[in-house]
Amino acid sequence: MRYWLHPEVREDLREAAEFYRERAGNALALALLEDFERAAAQLLEHPGLGPIWRNGKRRWSLTRFPYGLIYTVAGDEIRILASAHHSRRPGYWRGRR
């Protein structure tokens, strides 16, 4: 099993890390990225984590930060479509496949 990131997920993560870096420093920005990697690793081990949320997509929340990974499972691949904040810009990622 492996994971694939939608190209815009990198931008989602970069923006979120920059937000935390500007407000609290590099350590918190790195903690966000580590939390993302931890959540992605959990999905690789257990692809059915998180409730089916919208249109067959699942949502798995990060542990320390208010973000969820929106994903689908396709064969042996976890397709991460968004790293979405729980309350900012809801649904901005819906057109991603």
Radius of gyration: 13 Å
In terms of DSSP E residues, the strand content is: 25-35%
Strand order of the largest sheet: 1-5-4-3-2
CATH topology: YaeB-like fold
Q: Point out poorly predicted stretches.
A: none
For the secondary structure, the number of strands is: 5
Q: Write down the overall mean pLDDT.
A: 89
Sheet with the most strands, sense and barrel status: 5 strands, mixed
Would you identify the CATH architecture?
2-Layer Sandwich
Morphology call: elongated
Please give the alpha-carbon distance between the first and last residues: 19 Å
Alpha-beta content class: alpha+beta
| Overall tally of domains | 1
Percent in helix: 25-40%
CATH H-tier superfamily: RelE-like
The number of distinct helices, counting runs of at least 4 residues, comes to: 2
Compact summary:
The chain is an alpha+beta fold and 97 residues long. Helices cover 39% and strands 30% of the residues.
Task: Write up this protein.
The protein is an alpha+beta fold. The chain has one domain: 2-Layer Sandwich (YaeB-like fold), CATH 3.30.2310.20. It has helices at residues 7-24, 26-45, and strands at 2-5, 52-54, 57-61, 67-74, 77-85. The protein has a 5-stranded mixed β-sheet. Strand 3 and strand 4 (67-74) form a beta hairpin. Helix 1 (7-24) runs antiparallel to helix 2. The radius of gyration is 13 Å and the shape is elongated. The two termini are 19 Å apart.
Key phrases:
2 helices, alpha+beta, five-stranded mixed sheet
Outline the secondary-structure elements:
Elements: E1 2-5, H1 7-24, H2 26-45, E2 52-54, E3 57-61, E4 67-74, E5 77-85
Parallel strand pairs: 1-5
Antiparallel strand pairs: 2-3, 3-4, 4-5
